[in-house]
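Incident log, structure service

09:12 report received: a user says their structure output differs between two submissions of the same chain.
09:20 pulled the input from the user's history:
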Amino acid sequence: MNATSGSQSVSSQNFRQEEIDRFGALAQRWWDPDGPQKALHALNPVRLDYVREQVTLSGEPVLDVGCGGGLFSEALAREGARVTAIDLSPELIKVACLHKLESNLDVAYEVQSVESLAAERRGQFAVVTCMEMLEHVPDPAAIIATCGKLLRPGGRLFLATLNRTPAAFALAVVGAEYVARLLPKGTHHYRDFIKPSELGRCLRDAGLELENVSGVAYAPWRGGARRSDCTQVNYLACARKPDTAR
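09:34 re-ran on a clean worker, output below:
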């Protein structure tokens, strides 16, 4: 994991420009279910079901961090959540805003860092989601800590990322990028994958209580995904901010 254990520092430069550019280049096909983000389309229903099992979304203020072109943001809004969605890619936010015109869903999209939003809206969200983003930033522990600051007491943080295991390397890097070519080469870097134990430590250091970890099985040959007891590749996590937190 590329984060320093227990890091509470918040850097306005906690991103890699090449990562933003790589995903921005995919913006025009973000909503194509057979395009470069085919895996996200398959994972989206699984992620939404996981969140719905543990929180009520209708009427609640929800933040989607690293929202990309808005796939998960719109899914949350469709459940009645009052969604704010942020990303550092102008190209992706533009596509998200255009798609919102078709879906007629109420999502507030902004090109903004999570750190700058935390300075403006600390403690204002019942739910914060950060899906498939932590493995793409230099300091994931700092992102987790900042997400915690945005939660109100009793709020929950939902995360999705990749485990640092040989199975994840074989499937998410070799298989998805080089064999099946489901993702552009260079999308993932094995060194940045995060073990659940590391994620748990970062959550504790941020003052959050880990409540649940669930594996996700993605079958590209079927074009589908499902929850699983196995966390060796993709996994989801839910953490709660204590009621007494400030």
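09:41 both user submissions now match this output. Likely a transient worker issue. Closing.
09:42 reviewer note: The longest helix spans residues 38-54. The first strand starts at residue 61 and ends at 65.
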